[in-house]
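Retry 2 of 3 after timeout on previous attempt. Resubmitting structure tokens to design endpoint.
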């Protein structure tokens, strides 16, 4: 690695007591104030990402100090690149010699590749959605200084969603059960950084959940007897209650 290349990497490198952070988007805190960021484990590193609708952007790479010393990290950056494909499509990775790892995050192929001169296509065949089996860390950026808070995660029919989806109900035929209690509501929607339970023509929810230590699990299925829908909402701890330790 040449001295100039090393200096360019070091300009984007931050050091913290437990890890290094390489910023693909410089000063991302200012750009994403008030937004949610998602951190995915990707083998020995973690990828911090911005997700909104069809947009997916890797904004930084986290290197734990247990595995990376500064010089080794810089060699890693010189050798590997990160590429994000479009939602629902194969990924065409430019300037690559080979593909080292590929992941499917929120329907986007995210590829770690060895830098080179070729363009390589990564197909979706056989790839499984990472969030079907793992939970990303979800945090909200509070200010330009980078202060952040964890926020709840929403799982709908076993699929993790970047934000709470809007669900509408017909109170005549549908049933919504929240932690064992039937709620007479017309829709479930976002409220702050969590979810709210709403009735028609009432602006504020009749109830809401914003606890960042829980996963909000929503299961919706058809009621074959009444022809309506049954929606079950359950709050689950973000950690294993048998150990009393957060993961």
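Retry 2 succeeded. Sequence:
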């Amino acid at each position: 690695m040449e001295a100039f290349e090393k200096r360019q990497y070091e300009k984007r490198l931050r050091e913290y007591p437990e890890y290094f952070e390489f910023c693909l988007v410089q000063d991302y805190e200012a750009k994403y104030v008030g937004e949610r960021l998602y951190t995915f484990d990707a083998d020995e590193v973690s990828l911090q990402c911005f997700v909104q609708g069809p947009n997916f952007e890797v904004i930084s790479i986290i290197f734990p100090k247990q595995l990376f010393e500064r010089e080794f990290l810089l060699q890693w950056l010189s050798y590997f690149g990160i590429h994000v494909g479009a939602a629902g499509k194969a990924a065409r990775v430019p300037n690559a010699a080979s593909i080292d790892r590929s992941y499917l995050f929120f329907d986007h192929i995210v590829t770690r590749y060895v830098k080179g001169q070729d363009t390589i296509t990564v197909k979706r065949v056989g790839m499984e959605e990472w969030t079907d089996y793992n939970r990303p860390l979800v945090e909200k950026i509070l200010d330009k200084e980078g202060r952040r808070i964890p926020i709840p995660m929403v799982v709908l029919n076993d699929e993790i969603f970047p934000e709470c989806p809007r669900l509408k109900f017909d109170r005549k035929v549908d049933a919504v059960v929240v932690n064992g209690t039937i709620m007479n509501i017309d829709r479930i929607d976002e409220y702050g950084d969590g979810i709210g339970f709403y009735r028609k023509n009432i602006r504020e929810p009749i109830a809401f959940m914003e606890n960042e230590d829980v996963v909000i699990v929503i299961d919706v299925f058809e009621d074959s007897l009444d022809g309506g829908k049954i929606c079950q909402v359950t709050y689950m701890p973000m950690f294993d209650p048998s150990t009393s330790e957060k993961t």
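Attempt log closed. The helical segments are 3-11, 28-31, 70-79.
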